[in-house]
């Protein structure tokens, strides 16, 4: 029986999350993450980055552009802020979204007052999120990140870029006013040194409290997340779904190869890594050599178990198409929302994975060995894959995916073990047991 659940509910509030803080305090990282999280749980959200509006006129400004005594610079920066705010208000007005994130320094009380007034007049709640950081190491890491990834410094000498960026920060420091008691009427969160201290003021609605809970779990320390499916299983060989089978001989070869594959992917020195598996045999077996050969701690999570296929557990797609033809067609029609009789939908999996995502955000380096559907959902969170596409993504067996969050997006690397495995990817409208993912891509499956 197909089930169409409504999107995860929020109340009717529309929220503008207003980032506050000096450059190199991780604001864009927080903004980008909050946007991805919201989209992942089904809340339409968009980031309005004032820097990109400014870049339309001044693509690669020098630090002097940001000097508060530079009148022309001030005028252009004000115009960029007005452009972003006006597009944001139009976006809300057009009914396109629930949460907008205004990613800018918003470093003076006057600027915050203006944003608050504009939003209030348009019936939009504001949530100020200030990132304060005096940990020199963290600031330095962010400066390095910006000088290598920001379009402001593209093609420039990295050392000169870092020097200029430091001067830019000093210009902002001249006028920066932290959120203080004079702004108690606003809803705000102050994150001090990446969440080591969090001050929360006046959270009024459910959606804001959920967002604040997410944001307070974030950190901006450099780290990577490794994702792997279990090694090929006995069920994979026969095309059956679900179950709790052992890994095949080739799956065992992958399990043995996994420690070396991890090393090949690059593990920074003196890094603590934790292995997470599901409670099912095939993931535990796949991770066991990695656990034995390293000092990595290991945790088993029920929430990482494969999507529950209910009455179809243990059947092949061919058998499902034969026994439950209507269900088979309904699933193809809306794979994200289709719930197996007595089982789960992708949407259900996302809901049960929310605590995993929260824990992942609190954690540093983690290797997750899990299952196809669960991995698609986790991968979609990090890589911002739209809900309708995520259930059709190809996530091959015997491949390690390394994700490294950066200020301007998540970097992905794939490491394929040279160990053959069946393909468990199934195209829309087919019941083939083992299919190849089309190399030239069929839009819906990319
Ligand atoms: C920028 O122009 O890069 C950012 C403007 C600001 O938020 O101060």
UniProtKB/TrEMBL annotation:
Domain of life: Eukaryota
Gene3D superfamilies with a match to the protein in the record: P-loop containing nucleotide triphosphate hydrolases, Phosphoglycerate mutase-like
Cellular component, GO, one term: cytosol
Catalytic site positions: 230, 306
Residue ranges occupied by any 6-phosphofructo-2-kinase domain in the UniProt entry: 10-222
Biased composition (Basic and acidic residues): 433-446
EC number: 3.1.3.46
SMART domains referenced in this protein's UniProt entry, alphabetically: PGAM (SM00855)
Region described as Disordered: spans on this chain: 426-446
Pfam families per the UniProt record, alphabetical: 6PF2K, His_Phos_1
PANTHER family: 6-PHOSPHOFRUCTO 2-KINASE_FRUCTOSE 2,6-BISPHOSPHATASE LONG FORM, 6-PHOSPHOFRUCTO-2-KINASE/FRUCTOSE-2,6-BISPHOSPHATASE
Protein name: fructose-2,6-bisphosphate 2-phosphatase
